Amino acid sequence: MLTKSLHRGVLLTLTLLVFLLLAACGPKSSGSIVEGKVNVITTFYPIYEFASEIGGEDVHAINLLPVGVEPHDWTPRSQDIINTSKAQLFLYNGAGLEGWVPNFLKSLDADSEAKAVEVSKGVDYIMTDEEDGHDHGGEGEEGEAEGHTDTLHTDPHTWVSPKSALIMAENIKESLQSVDPAHKDGYEERYNKLAERLKALDSKFATELAKLPNHEIVVSHQAFAYLARDYGLTQHAIMGLSADAEPRSQDLLKLADLVKKEGIRYIFFEELVSDKLAKTLAAEAGVSTMVLNPVEGLTEAQEKNGDNYFTLMEKNLQNLILALQ
Ligand SMILES: [Zn+2]
């Protein structure tokens, strides 16, 4: 009897120890549920920023994607399932960005009341036949597709255009109002402020880019189709929708020819993935590289610096102006 209870005691201590160790050693927690607020789980940075802005004091937002990580290779951890099960709202981009969402929603607690909302709904989607070799979407059915596929994919990068970001912000506002009607007016008021800023950004992009003589951009990852469509640019991508799929060498040579022929002066790359291919192409064509940020997440430096969707998009505009004049 004595040994049995002693045994149980040791087991309990061990369990507790393992639990504490796990809690201490796990990757940086993405935050925990706060009682008395509307808990909103977001999948990646722009949605987190908009939900925090519109939510104000009524909302506690938790972003699943850690700082410095781009959404392509990310999948949720068990703590994310626990948090989301207790939250009132789960906001994801959709349009194929988060291929893990259907399974994730199935794994939530049976009594979870979290309402899942596809934030990009209502945006006029761009379809592309680009291969999508990474986990940006495709619900995993394409996997590591070899060669060309004839399937059309939805381009998920809706937020990169202020015009579609505005639609996304409105969806976020409506979802907050539906789970928390008591604070409807506050959401409306803060949404209006955010919408004003997005509209100002939109008209700045439209007027500034229209003044420029050049409209062809060469980018590393095909993340700028919505921006290109809405502001009259033509996007040439080295890597397709993915940020990590390798381009074929004949495609690189073709791009180098285009760069020379069109007098393109800069190849754009992004900070969360390697700039190797952009540098290779730039060297091949004898031009320079510059950052064009798809705002899929912040780097640690950007977070410390207080950067956000608006500062990064503003920087994008300044770099586009430099590159296209
Ligand atoms: Zn992307």
TrEMBL record:
Keyword Cell membrane attributed: no
This protein's record includes keyword ATP-binding: no
GO biological process, one term: cell adhesion
Gene3D superfamilies: Nitrogenase molybdenum iron protein domain
Domain of life, per lineage: Bacteria
Keyword set, alphabetical order: Signal, Transport
Family membership: Belongs to the bacterial solute-binding protein 9 family.
Location of region: Disordered: 129-156
Protein name: ABC transporter substrate-binding protein
Lineage: Bacteria, Bacillati, Bacillota, Bacilli, Bacillales
UniProt biased composition (Basic and acidic residues): 133-156
GO molecular function annotations of the record: metal ion binding
